[in-house]
Each structure stands twice: as C-alpha cells, then as structure tokens.
Amino acid sequence: MLLDRFALKKYQSGLKMVMYVAVRELFKCDVFFMHSLDKGLYCKIMTQRNITPEDISMLENKIKEIIAKDEKINRKTVTKKDAYDYYLKTKEYEKAGNILSLNSKTCTLYELHGFYNYFMGTIPTSTGELNKFTINYLGDNALVLSFPITTDQETIKYKSQDMILRSFTEYGIWCQNQNVSYVTELNSVISNSKIKEFIKKNDIMMDNQIYELAYTIHQEHKKIVLLGGPSSSGKTTSTRKLSLYLDAIGLNPIYLSLDDYFKERLETPKLPNGGYDFESLNAIDLELFNTQLEQMLNGEKVKVPTFNFLTGKKEYSDERVIELKENDIILIEGLHCLNEELTSQIPADKKLKVYISPFMPLSIDRHNHISTVDIRLLRRIVRDNRTRGYDVVHTLKTWDDVRNGETAYVFPFTNEANVILNTAYVYEIGVLKIYVEPLLHSVPIDSKYYMEAQRLINFLQMFFPIPSEYISDDNILREFIGESYFE
Fold first, then answer.
1. 152 and 297 share a domain?
2. Are residues 112 and 138 part of one domain?
C-alpha cells in the first residue's frame, strides 16, 4: 500500500532538509533537488570539484549520524519581509520571489544546525522519524536520494531511468535557454505580457516531439505502436495527435482499443474483496489479442471484437474488419502497453513502445521541485469535475487506487519503452490554477481530504494565473479543461 500523500511529502521534505544540512557542513556548498526519478529525487551537489564515491559514503554517514541523534527540527515563523531580505542576502533570488507571491504576512522556515530553509508542506519535528533512505551516485556530482513509498517497504533500490532522466535534462536545457527555470521567472514572463509568445514557443517544442515520433515510425517501418503511461498524462490527445501527424506523412493510422479485448466477465480475475480486477493484465484475453495482431501483420482479414460492458461479452460485427495494407499503422493505447507480456508473440522489429508522462523541468526553487504526480492530480481534478461532475473529494478518494494501479502495472515497465513522450507544459499550472483553485476551496474543513486540498492550494499560491484563451484547441491541456479539437 502506498504511503498517504501527506505522510510521503512530509518524509520527503524532512530528508531534503537533513541532506541540505549535511551537504552544507561536509562540502560547504549547496545541493539542488531538481525533480523526481524512480521513487526518489534527482539531486546535484553544486560544487566545482568532482564529488567522488568516497564523498558520497561520507554524505550517507553524515545523514545517518544526524538521524541517529534524533535532533529537533525547529519551526520558525518569520515575517514575509524578513524572509525576503534573508533570501536576498543569501542570493537565492528565486526564493525571494516566491516569498513575495505568498498571500500571508508571515511564512514558516525550518532550522537545523543553524541552517534555515523552507519546503513545500510540513516537515517532521525531529530527524529520528527519517529512518530509511538510500543514495545512488550517478556521476558528474549527480545522485538519486531514494525513500520508501509504501507502508511495508523494507528495501529501497534505485532502478536506472536513463531515458526519463534524458527527457528531464533536455527539457531543462530548453527552459534555461528561455531563462525560465523557476516559477518566479515564469511569473515574470506573465507580468511582462510575454506569456502568449512563450506558450507558442513551448507548444512548438512539444509538437516537435510528436513529429519526430511519427518520422521514427515511418523510417523504421513500424506496424504496431503501443502507447502507455499513468493516469492524466494526456495519452488520448497524444494518440490522436500522433494519428494526424502520421496521416500527414502518408500513413494510415488505425486505432485499436485494448478494452475491447477484455475477457468475458465470468473469466475475469477477482480481487480479494470479491470484485472484478479489471486493472490486471490477466483481465485481457492475451491469446486472442496476440493471435489477431499476428494475423493482421500477415495480411489476413481480421474481425476484431467490441466489448459490451453491459453484458460483459465481446461482440463481433462485419463492420469491424481490419486488413492491414502497406501504409497502415495500428495504434494501441492502454494501461499495459509497455508490458512485454501483452505483445509477447509480436516481433520487436514490428512494434514501438511509447511511454507518455508529464516530466516537468520547471522548479519552484532550487530545493523544491514540481511533482509529476501533483501535475497529474490537478489535471484529473479538473477533468473529473468537467466531464463526470465529480467533486474534489471523490477524485482525492479514488486517487490512491489509481496510484496503486500505476505502481503495479505501469511504472515497473517504463524501461521497456523505446520512446519517451514528455507531455508537461512549462506554463500549464498557471492555466490549471484558474479551474482547480475554486474546486479545492470547496473541500469542507471536516473532510479527511481537507489537508491535502490545502497543500495543493498553498502550492498554487506561487503561480500567476494564465488565461486559457491562449491555449490552442489541439493542446493536451484541452483534454482536461475542455474545448479540445479531439472531443
């Protein structure tokens, strides 16, 4: 079971505080927490000398020493002016800008060993609460700080994520070239009336990914493209947009839904509580799915099923017959698309796996990154309310089940992807803010999800709002805020 979101954020912030202090004391420099990476944080020690494996061992021991002493982390309430002046003095200008964005007259800083800092959310009252972590050194002064994400996790192992790291890095370089690495710099673009132009440039960069993907499919003569990723990553819009690009270069995309290959209801595996387990790979009729794909690749006419969710049975129609021609491409989008077991009978040279997720290169500041999970949650809250009429409490209540499904069926297979499609827009939180903020304020104070709603509200404080009129109708964000070309 995944840790409660509030507990996870608290644990993560506490570890960051301890590592920040340990790096300051050992190496007399700063450490930047840049983004999440495989159940941990990708960090860089900001010194000109080369950090060695021996240095990393010293850092681990220093952190363990601070934790073992169970030292108190002091909470300090200071005026907004004092905090602003402090960060100007330390030349952490992006933090000074964040302080100015706060709606309150005071702010909270945390102190440990005479070092002051703030982190999004709360921090443990003492270091002794932080009993599990690992550090994996990646070279070039970069490391991954890993921590438990489940209630029963005993071991913490880092699984290399080279393609995801490259996606973050390349996007981050683009942000640096635009002088927009931090929220304060994005806010400056908005306040100087340059956001419309920035959105256009960001959209060009994002659309270029899909063009390159379409070109790769064409050049490598792929016949099957499998698109997978976690909830609210923009898979639907990305798939439909890819269809347009493929069509534009002379290929004929055919969409095949994995849902139509569900096993008959009576054959569907069950959960311990007796309910049907539709999330499991075993809920898919793998034999039929692979057999039909093989037949299509061999040029045979195939009558594909349509699953009737009312009767729980597959239905067949003469109108649903596929016969692959030379320029036909099959696009399949679904939860299990990255899992090799789904298409185990299909040769690797005939298929391409695409992992779709929003990897945000923008940071709040050098010690506070923007969570990919939070971006997806904000997107889902807006879409659930718009398309299904769900309130925020409903979305927050079901989010843990969604995350558990992703942890079991998506994230273990990310390294099997051939291509990463990054669907994060640098400016998107400013757009989502207009839609999601009123919904979050509707969560009653006696709700068990009130603190989570307040955490997201506090997070959104940092961002200036951006009007949706600048968002094109084929933008992935339209999948969530509405008026999409593809709806």
1. no
2. yes
